[in-house]
Structure to design on (320 residues):
């Protein structure tokens, strides 16, 4: 992959229904060139599929730490089998990074206990990351966070069965055309467009991709930044500074409401030399950053989670 590929991926992670023409206009390229690049990413299985998720009012939790397990593959799968955990990443030195959703903070303690026991991670770092306020959404994605309540609570939709039929149609292929969706659910294109517009206006749906960077041969790393508590520079300013220096190589930042002096960064580089340059740059900012710990990503996978379960239950409810 090159920086153009990664920029395309970032647009699609934020909204996988973004037209190729819109991406092309932003990158000053032709739509055909964008389409060819996306097709190549799909053929390489870097983009596994285009997906549609439902925004739900969950707390996003990121947990990470080193595991003492002797069977890393078994622990990887067992961790992913917990319905609250939707992504597991395994990195160097038996390091796990876990992304989970919890309905309330009361669910956090049993989840942490599960991670400690199943992943054999004695002291996992636990970060509370609200997607509604995350700078990941604000600065890196093309969608803006909005309300996350159920659509039934916001408006009395008289045809919920049709709504969930439409969502189910694009669940595994968010790039289906309006005509394809209409033919599949047995209604008019006008109705499908109106319903999708209603859902999108209420930010009920998030169109994304199942991104598998392991397939690229490039290096996906994570840097844990411990910030100087006396620094006057905010986290957003620091991330902006890093992105200005290294561009698209700074993929995802996670900032946590309960960890005021810590940032987790996901980094994409094409060589170890590029990664070392980022690490060196961070280490030289001693007035801002106390330490920068680099972990090399080995494998990552998305798992069936609470959001999927909710959607399955809704589809089943309205199909009976």
């Amino acid at each position: 992959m090159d920086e153009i590929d990664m920029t395309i991926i970032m647009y699609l992670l934020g909204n996988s229904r973004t037209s190729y023409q819109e991406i092309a206009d932003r990158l000053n390229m032709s739509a055909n060139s964008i389409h060819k690049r996306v097709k190549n990413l799909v053929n390489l299985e870097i983009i596994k599929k285009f997906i549609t998720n439902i925004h739900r009012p969950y707390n996003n939790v990121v947990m990470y730490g080193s595991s003492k397990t002797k069977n890393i593959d078994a622990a990887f799968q067992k961790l992913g089998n917990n319905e609250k955990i939707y992504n597991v990443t395994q990195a160097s030195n038996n390091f796990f990074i876990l992304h989970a959703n919890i309905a309330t903070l009361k669910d956090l303690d049993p989840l942490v206990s599960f991670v400690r026991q199943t992943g054999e991670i004695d002291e996992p770092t636990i970060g509370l990351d609200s997607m509604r306020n995350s700078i990941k959404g604000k600065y890196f994605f093309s969608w803006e966070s909005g309300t996350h309540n159920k659509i039934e609570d916001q408006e009395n939709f008289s045809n919920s069965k049709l709504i969930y039929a439409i969502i189910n149609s694009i669940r595994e292929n968010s790039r289906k055309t309006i005509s394809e969706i209409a033919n599949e659910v047995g209604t008019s294109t006008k109705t499908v467009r109106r319903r999708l517009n209603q859902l999108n206006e209420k930010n009920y749906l998030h169109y994304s991709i199942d991104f598998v960077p392991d397939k690229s041969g490039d290096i996906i790393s994570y840097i844990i930044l411990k910030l100087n508590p006396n620094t006057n520079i905010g986290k957003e300013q620091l991330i902006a500074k890093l992105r200005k220096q290294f561009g698209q190589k700074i993929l995802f930042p996670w900032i946590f409401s309960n960890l005021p002096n810590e940032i987790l960064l996901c980094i994409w580089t094409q060589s170890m030399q590029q990664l070392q340059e980022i690490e060196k740059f961070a280490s030289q900012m001693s007035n801002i950053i106390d330490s920068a710990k680099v972990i090399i990503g080995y494998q990552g996978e998305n798992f069936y989670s609470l959001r999927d379960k909710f959607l399955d239950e809704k589809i089943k409810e309205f199909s009976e």
Notes: The first strand starts at residue 47 and ends at 54.
